[in-house]
Amino acid sequence: MPALLAALLAKEYHKDLGNSCECGSATAIYRCQSCTHGLLHCQSCILSDHHLSAWHHLEEWVGTHFSQTSLYRLGYRFRLGHHRVECLNRSHTSTVKNMVVVHTNGFHHASVEFCACNTHAAPPYQLIDADLFPATVEQPETAFTFELLDTFQKLSLRSKINAYDYHCSLQEMTNAAFVQDVPVRIISSKCQPN
After folding, report:
1. How many CB atoms lie within 10 A of CB 47?
2. pTM of the model
3. Among candidate residues 189, 153, 191, the one with its CA nearest the CA of residue 170
4. What is the Rg, in whole angstroms, of the alpha carbon atoms belonging to the chain?
5. Element (H, E) at 129
6. Is the alpha carbon torsion for 126, 129, 130, 135 positive or negative?
7. What is the residue-level pLDDT of the chain in tens, covering all 194 positions?
8. Which residue in 80, 88, 151, 189 is a FRET match for 115, CA 20 to 30 A apart?
């Protein structure tokens, strides 16, 4: 048991801290909690590595410990249409929608760029094309991943979990220490700790 405990506590630090990123351009201070092996990256590389994994939880080394951060805070844009490449018809004045995306591992703030092509669908349908179900069809500010909806359906049919308890679990997965800072996306009282 002492060896297992030491191995678990060693994960709170990283042996490669202070080294340059694999790209060689900057110090590697970011790691992903959702990816295996927890490799350290610079800001540019962590953003590049996660262009198809937008719903991962990230940490940043702040000198004494790893602190929770996000792709949103690092400037990541979730681009719809054109296979995650910026739409050529977007201008610099085009709005970027700040949304909350709920996934199986919790809540995620996201800067969403909708496609501006004349032939492309309205925003709610662009979200659906990206496997995100909008909470409303008029100016959606929240979307749920299809994976989350499928997981909730299976859990509710098998274990009889209700939407409120599932929502509270997602809040705790997002930030167990400060659940009150996690977005609330249900109409009810605050989740009570277990």
Report:
1. 17
2. 0.83
3. 191
4. 19
5. helix 123-129
6. positive
7. 889 988 888 777 777 787 888 898 888 999 999 998 878 999 999 999 998 889 999 999 998 888 999 999 999 999 988 877 788 888 776 778 999 999 999 999 999 999 888 777 888 999 999 999 999 998 899 999 999 999 999 999 999 999 889 988 898 888 877 777 777 766 555 666 66
8. 151
Nearest to 82 by CA among 41, 129, 43: 129
Q: At what angle do helices 146-159 and 163-174 cross, to 10 degrees?
A: 130
Give the pair of three-digit tokens for residue 94: 């085009």
Token pair recorded at residue 172: 């705790």
Question: Could you give the dihedral angle defined by the CA atoms of residues 108, 132, 34 and 99, in that order, rounded to the nearest 10 degrees?
Answer: -10
Token pair 């405990």 in the structure block, residue: 5
